[in-house]
Design a protein that fits this description.
The protein has 4 domains: 129 residues, Jelly Rolls; 103 residues, Galactose-binding domain-like (Jelly Rolls, Sandwich), CATH 2.60.120.260; 146 residues, Jelly Rolls (Sandwich); 149 residues, Jelly Rolls (Sandwich). With 627 residues, the chain is mainly beta. Helix content is 1%, strand content 49%.
Length: 627
Amino acid sequence: MSLLDDVSIVVTPNGYKAGELYAVVPVPTEGTELVTNGDFATDSDWTLSQTTIANDKATVNSTSAYGIKLTQATTIGLNKTYKILFTVADVGANINFKIGFGNLNNGVYSDLITTAGTYEIYLTQTDALAPSQILILTWSIAVQTFSITNISVKEVITASADMDVTRTTAATRVDEAGLVNYAEVLSETEEVTNGEFATDSDWTKGTGITISGGSANFTSNANSSLTQSGVVSLGKSYKATFTVRNYVSGAIDINLGGSTRQGNISANGTYDFYITVPSGNILYFQEDFSNGFVGSVDNVSVKELIRDNVPRIDYTGGGCPHILAEPQRTNVIEYSEDFSNSYWAKTNANVESNAAVSPDGTQNADKLNFTTSSGEIVKGMAFVSGQTYTMSFYAKTESGTLDFIYGNMDYFTISGTATDEWQRFVITQTLPTTTRFPKIQTTEIGSLLLWGWQVEQGSFPTSYIPTSGSTVTRNQDIFTRDGIGSLINSTEGVLFVEFKTLTETGVFRQFNLSKDNSNRIYITKRGDSGNLEFRMENPSGNLNFSFSENTTNDFVKVAFRYGLNNFAVFIDGVNKNVTATGNVFASGTLNTLEFDSPLGQPFFGKVKQLQVYKTALTDAQLTSLTS
């Protein structure tokens, strides 16, 4: 029998989108649509209070808190899980409501919804006293105005184990080519109207520009522009793609909002640009200041690059990828790539900007030329006395080697040797005073290519956080999935993980199958001893197994079997021969999988695979699984 016959959840570094890491199994299935007129095409089927239906939406104009505004009777089954989709728009005087099943006094509701957007919520109806209906319930704030549309409710027949991912900030990873870059996905929404120039509309044309034959045609009026308003938004990043054809002479640039003109394109071809918008909302194509542009532009596309909440599939070290989960960190260095800036003090050293290709694959690494054997680059800055900080940077030479010393403190440094391959150099120090001097100082005359300087409070380095004029914070990665009781057998099963923890002490890091703090099965790396611990917490009696295993330097495969008087722990193919008798849980108790615990002890590290089995696998199977 294959192990896959019994597995109910498999999470690996595979597909993802913003806010979600896809599980390999199970394949989710859903029941029929339970809502009638969820798109509000007609003013019917719903019971309304301080709400009207028009223009394909229900608009709430609430003057009272804690009130039911929108209901529809349907078929909601006890202890069944439902997927609810809906869109909130037209925000007026506040949003503060819940969606759920039941009535004001009995029922199951979502968390508070306080912003516009499209939502996907999973609820399990557990209140036997609740009527069988869906409702919108305003909460806490008396005066509220907003619209809701496209409501869908379907029973989850087979739940999805896709992990919900929350970070709310951008973050970098090492990709399959070994490059350091942002984890990002491209929006499916096209921001440009009539980008194929099918009609002579939607664009503002400068002198000498026409739209015909499926393209925008330029006839060499120097610095003339083709624009479209309302394409981009301040602070967001976009991928812009377009094709140049029929090229004759001159050059053409693109910019988004108030970004720097990019391109200087003087040949046929299809071009991609990645741009973050500093101001404005206009897409520009501009001819060369002096020579104009003779040629055509076609197939213009602009789509938002989403970087927040994107799970990081990381290839550090090469080989198979892993899921990367890290704590919140702030890079307190304000110019992490621009060493020509006066922010950095240079002594017996000068800087050549953008002299080489950096670890992110673009030509943005600076070259520091040290003119004496004590040349240095340094930044004096304030720290918290007594706290531990980690400094890191990427460095290489153009050829040969270069020796240097580096550190967070002006009087405590370590030696480093740069070669002609990029390396990340790291030093961790506990600082005795508040003013320190992160620096690199050479011990010989020579040149050093430098990129990605980071100083963060913490005892180990985390992934690179780019900065360009201010400090930047990357928030903690959170991986969790609730409402999946149908995929977890509470009476027997196996939790299996292949992982590697980050180098840290003093904290507990956990993987949990849980309902709450009193009902859970978990695998943890203890912060006090560094031991691996396997624990069941159950009102009928807790069980605990602890093993001194190295989980810092290498990946480890661990499995925890649970069942009535049937417990086992396997680590890297070895049966730890635990002896225990004990009860487990009532059927249907456990309903959540998380890289965390109910006590707030999130796992930080690297995960290659996580599996949950609904049967208590045999010793032979567990040996195979963890080998």
